[in-house]
């Protein structure tokens, strides 16, 4: 290391400065070219996109049950609660029909080690633009026979438009934005 400290500083001449400017210019030009070319088109002409995106916690898979006096007596005093409820949650099941044709049928399992967390759904459907009848059914309870949340709408999709299907309990359930 003492040799590097004793070396005199090298002054750059005009040719070195011009070379540096040229290299930086070529680098900037390459970035500019590749940021514009090749053109990326996420959708083809005459196509629209339907995005299904939400996170929801399903209902418990079973009912709470009351413990008998004998079962309570076997438990330590600090764990004696009169009822026991299952932690596991129901998976979220979603079905989307576009113009009467089933386009998506998805079941999202609950997250977490005990399967007690939220289920996340994210799907993309590319459809032809124009007027479409969208029907969405969502179930968050394995014990229910029919989906408790339903939404059907007639929407007009412009080419390149993105329609987002979401779930918002405060707005009444399934929303189309």
Could you give a quick summary of the protein structure above?
With about 180 residues, this protein is of the alpha+beta class. The protein has 3 helices and 10 strands.
Descriptive notes:
- By secondary structure, this protein is of the alpha+beta class.
- It has 2 domains: 12-41; 47-60 and 90-176, Immunoglobulin-like (Sandwich), CATH 2.60.40.
- Helices cover 19% and strands 39% of the residues.
- It has 3 helices and 10 strands.
- The strands form 3 sheets. Strands 6-1-9-10 form a 4-stranded mixed sheet, with no helix packed on it. Strands 5-4-7-8 form a 4-stranded antiparallel sheet, with no helix packed on it.
- Strand 9 (162-168) and strand 10 form a beta hairpin.
- The longest helix is centred in the first third of the chain and has 23 residues, at 14-36.
- The termini are far apart.
- The model has no long low-confidence stretch (mean pLDDT 90).
């Amino acid at each position: 290391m003492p040799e590097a400290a004793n070396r005199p500083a090298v002054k750059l001449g005009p040719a070195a400065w011009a070379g540096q400017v040229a290299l930086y210019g070529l680098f900037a030009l390459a970035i500019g070219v590749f940021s514009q070319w090749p053109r990326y088109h996420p959708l083809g002409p005459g196509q629209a996109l339907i995005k299904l995106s939400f996170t929801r916690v399903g209902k418990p898979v079973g009912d709470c049950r009351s413990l008998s006096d004998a079962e309570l007596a076997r438990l330590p005093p600090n764990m004696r609660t009169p009822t026991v409820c299952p932690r596991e949650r129901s998976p979220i099941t979603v079905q989307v029909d576009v113009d009467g044709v089933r386009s998506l049928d998805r079941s999202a399992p609950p997250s977490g080690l005990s399967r007690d967390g939220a289920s996340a759904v994210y799907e993309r459907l590319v459809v032809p633009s124009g007027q479409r009848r969208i029907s969405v059914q969502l179930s968050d309870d394995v014990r229910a026979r029919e989906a408790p949340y339903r939404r059907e709408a007639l929407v007009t999709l412009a080419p390149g438009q993105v329609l987002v299907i979401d779930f918002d309990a405060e707005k009444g359930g399934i929303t189309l934005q």
